[in-house]
Amino acid sequence: MNRLVLAEDGVLLREGLAGLLSRFGFDVVAAVGDGQALKAAVAELRPDLVVTDIRMPPGFTDEGLRAAVELRRTRPGLPVVALSQYVQLSYAAELLDSDNGRAVGYLLKDRVVDVEEFIGTLRKVLDGGTVVDPAVVRQLLRRRASPLERLSPREREVLALIAQGHSNTAIAADLVISEAAVGKHIGNILAKLDLPPTEDSNRRVLAVLAYLRDGPLA
């Protein structure tokens, strides 16, 4: 039997998943409710597979995901399947990139509707495969492809103010910098967004459209 550690803060869901996995031939050697307990259980029990929720105590943000990334770093090749109610981009790319993307899965809970398919996913990850929900793939690709990623924090501030319709003079006053500095930032923004000078397009408008399309990045 494959030895499995399960991490899920919801008691009913944790117990339900543990029972389901046991019925399908997995040996659930530990079922825990937070990231620290997950790391401790894996260190002590050295399971064949980890199935973890993303959001767990104390912050209910990405504790499970961060724990999974750390586990994959300290124990390369450890098969991990992350379960989430939402697409959580922080650390998701790092998890999926770890160990060349082998033996890892990222599934959205609401889209797991077939038990046998779910069990098949776990076994595929155990065998070194990669399974990622299409919604996660789409958001990761969008994030990675965004040209706004190339901008510095200050350049993003300047672009946000341009999008609000501010002039260079107003931007300089708002950010307490010189108009020359504003002009330099704008030049850098246009270059990083691949907007070379043309006769028939307004580059500031195109930059604003890119900002509105992709949204401000944190």
UniProtKB/TrEMBL annotation:
<dbReference type="InterPro" id="IPR001789">
    <property type="entry name" value="Sig_transdc_resp-reg_receiver"/>
</dbReference>
<dbReference type="InterPro" id="IPR000792">
    <property type="entry name" value="Tscrpt_reg_LuxR_C"/>
</dbReference>
<keyword id="KW-0597">Phosphoprotein</keyword>
<keyword id="KW-0804">Transcription</keyword>
<feature type="domain" description="Response regulatory">
    <location>
        <begin position="3"/>
        <end position="124"/>
    </location>
</feature>
<feature type="domain" description="HTH luxR-type">
    <location>
        <begin position="144"/>
        <end position="214"/>
    </location>
</feature>
<feature type="modified residue" description="4-aspartylphosphate">
    <location>
        <position position="53"/>
    </location>
</feature>
<dbReference type="InterPro" id="IPR011006">
    <property type="entry name" value="CheY-like_superfamily"/>
</dbReference>
<keyword id="KW-0238">DNA-binding</keyword>
<protein>
    <submittedName>
        <fullName>Response regulator</fullName>
    </submittedName>
</protein>
<dbReference type="Pfam" id="PF00072">
    <property type="entry name" value="Response_reg"/>
</dbReference>
<dbReference type="Pfam" id="PF00196">
    <property type="entry name" value="GerE"/>
</dbReference>
<dbReference type="InterPro" id="IPR036388">
    <property type="entry name" value="WH-like_DNA-bd_sf"/>
</dbReference>
<dbReference type="InterPro" id="IPR058245">
    <property type="entry name" value="NreC/VraR/RcsB-like_REC"/>
</dbReference>
<dbReference type="InterPro" id="IPR039420">
    <property type="entry name" value="WalR-like"/>
</dbReference>
<keyword id="KW-0805">Transcription regulation</keyword>
